[in-house]
Automatic annotation (TrEMBL):
InterPro entries: Acyl_CoA_acyltransferase, GNAT_dom. Residues 163-298 form the N-acetyltransferase domain. This is GNAT family N-acetyltransferase. Transmembrane segments: none annotated. Signal peptide: none annotated. Gene3D superfamilies: 3.40.630.30.
Length: 298
């Protein structure tokens, strides 16, 4: 067997990326996503594509933010691992999986094979997440009416609220940022994401009790895939009252009022309280994702 040839694609041969089967339906899941040809790489053996990966970033990003499409032919796990291992991009891998994938033997085998290949490339699992997709057919939840919402134009105030929210968080990415750079880094990562989204700044809203006590923050947003729940956060001293539901309902309704035909959302599977609120607000799980972080380069 000849050694695989690993290389990037360009506009002239981008079609090679589509020559492999798509057993996990990643193409359907990413139907609104645009991948740049130069951020696609393949492994070829005797001229045939045996593994592929596509990295993704926003239209103004100079470097990709993650790799979210990674496939390989049967028996080509090692070539696939080498494809990731030799990539110039040290970014997170988002393994996209159908809902309940572990219950289907074929899907489970495909998913576990990709996890093994990524592991051989030095990646490790950070967290598994639920992905939600609300549409008007799901029903628009009624506002509980317990909180007062208003825009907050001062980024410093938003930053402080984010620090308070993340001082006691279940979010794996925030915990990783805190471990590496403290609360300021976690808050800044959220703020950078809000600014990165091509949606109006005035959508960022703080929530207060009628008596004026701060409850938290919600950020309706549009990312590159469409309208989404950008952030839901309740400050620690206000937890235990179910306020995350109020924030999620308001976030959903703001986007619906802006004409959204769907609303995307996500939460860590280990964040059981937030997953419960998504279900209560009528946001169905449409897929699952496993986030893997890159290891150090050899």
């Amino acid at each position: 067997m000849t050694d695989p040839v690993i290389r990037a694609l360009d506009e002239n041969d981008a079609h090679l990326f589509d020559s492999l089967p798509d057993p996990l339906g990643i193409g359907r899941a990413l139907s609104r996503t645009v991948h740049r040809p130069e951020w696609k790489r393949v492994a070829l053996r005797d001229g045939q594509v045996v593994a592929r990966a596509a990295w993704w970033g926003g239209p103004d990003d100079e470097h990709p933010l993650n790799v979210n499409w990674f496939d390989f032919a049967e028996g080509e796990e090692e070539a696939a691992a080498e494809l990731l291992r030799t990539s110039p991009y040290r970014v997170e891998y988002q393994l996209i999986l159908p809902r309940g994938w572990r219950e289907d033997p074929v899907l489970r085998a495909a998913g576990e094979a990709r996890l093994r290949a990524a592991g051989k490339a030095g990646m490790s699992v950070l967290v598994e997440r639920y992905q939600y997709h609300w549409t008007p057919e799901c029903g628009l939840p009624e506002r509980p009416g317990r909180l007062v919402f208003r825009p907050e134009p001062d980024d410093d105030v938003i930053f402080d609220v984010l620090r308070r929210v993340h001082s006691a968080t279940l979010d794996a990415h925030a915990l990783q940022d805190i471990a590496e750079g403290g609360l300021d880094r976690a808050a800044q990562a959220e703020l950078d994401f809000f600014r990165w989204c091509p949606s109006p700044r005035e959508w960022w809203q703080l929530a207060h009790t009628p008596g004026g006590e701060l409850v938290g923050l919600h950020v309706p947003a549009r990312n590159q895939s469409g309208p989404c729940i950008g952030f839901i956060g309740v400050v620690p001293e206000q937890r235990g009252h179910g306020y995350a539901y109020d924030l999620l309902v308001e976030c959903t309704r703001v986007l619906a009022d802006e004409g959204a035909e769907f609303v995307l959302g996500a939460t860590d599977q280990t964040n059981v309280p937030m997953a419960r609120q998504f279900a209560r607000a009528g946001h169905p799980v449409i897929e699952e994702r496993i986030y893997l972080t890159p290891g150090p380069r050899d």
